[in-house]
Amino acid sequence: MSSTHAAEPAGGSRVRSFLAAPVRSQTYLNLAYLVLAFPLGLMYFVFVTVSISLGVGLSIILVGIPLLAAVVALSLIAAALERRLTAWMLDVDVPAGPQPTGDGWRERLRALATEPGTYAPLLYLPLKFAVGTLAFVVVMNALVTGVALLSVPLHYDEPGLYVGLVTNRPIELHPALHFGWNRLLVGVETVVTIKAWEVTTLAEALGAAAAGVLLLLGGLAVLNWLASLHGRLTAALLGRAYDPVSLLGSKSE
Questions:
Q1: Number of C-alpha atoms within 13 angstroms, CB side, residue 81?
Q2: Residue 187 CB-density burial (10 A; 0-12 exposed, 13-18 middle, 19+ buried)
C-alpha cells in the first residue's frame, strides 16, 4: 500500500515536469547548450581526428610526438572551457582532476602523462559532436515542425495557400490481423491509401495545432533528457582531467 502511494507523486511529478517544460528557464538554457554543441562538436571532431592522424603519421620521423603532446594540451584547455560551460548552462558541477605532483617540472609532467584522466578529453570532445548532431535532428524535426503545426490556425484559410500533407507518391498502410482457429490461420487485411491531405476547416486546423503542441512538448522533453545525459557524461569523463585554465587563473591573481 505504501509503495503505491509513493509511486503516485513521482508519476505526477514527471507529468508536471513534462507539461511545464516550456515555461522553465532551464529548458531554454538546455536548448541553447545543445544548439551550441553542434558547431563546437564539429570543430572538436575535426581538430581531434585530423591532429591525431597527422601526429601518428609523423611520429616515425619524431615530428609527430610534440604534435601529439600539443593536441593533448589543447584538448585539456578545451575540456576546461567545456567544464565551465556545463556548470554555467546546465548547472552541473564538474570538478577538475588533481594537480600533477612532483618535486620538479619533469616529475609533474610525468605524473600528468601517466594520469588516465589526461586523455579523457580526446574521447569527450568528439562525442560532443554526436550529441550536437542528435540535438540538431530533434530541433529540426520536432521543434520546427511543432511550431509550424501550431501556426496552422493562423493561415490555413488564406487564399492560394495549401496547408496539409503532400507526398511524391501515395502512402499505403497495410493493417492486418491474423489468428489461429481450428488449425486454420484466419486473418483480416486491408489497405489504406493516403494521397494527400489538406486542412480546410477550423477543426482540422485546431487538430493540427494540438498535434504541434504535443510534438513541441515531446521535443523539449527529449532535449532536456539529452542535456541531463550530457551533463552526467561530462562529469564522468572530465572529472579526473587536469585543468590548465585554473592554473593560469591562479597565477594571474
A1: 9
A2: exposed
CA distance 14 to 37: 26
SS3 string, 192-239, reads: EEEEEEECCCHHHHHHHHHHHHHHHHHHHHHHHHHHHHHHHHHHHHHC
CA distances for 111 relative to 9, 85, 94, 98, 194, angstroms: 49, 27, 21, 10, 66
25, 101, 142 from 208: Cα distances, Å: 27, 62, 14
Entry pTM: 0.76
What single letter denotes the amino acid at residue 25? S
The cell 551550441 sits on which residue?
36
CA separation, residue 84 to residues 78, 116, 182 (Å): 10, 21, 68
Whole-angstrom distance, CA of residue 55 vs CA of residue 118: 17
Do residues 26 and 91 lie in contact, with contact meaning Cβ atoms separated by under 8 Å? yes
The one-letter amino acid at 214 = L
Separation CA 212–CA 111 (nearest Å): 55
Q: What's the pLDDT tens digit per position in 98-141?
A: 776 666 767 777 777 777 788 889 999 999 999 999 999 999 88
Whether 152 contacts 198, CB under 8 Å = no
CA distance 177 to 233: 44
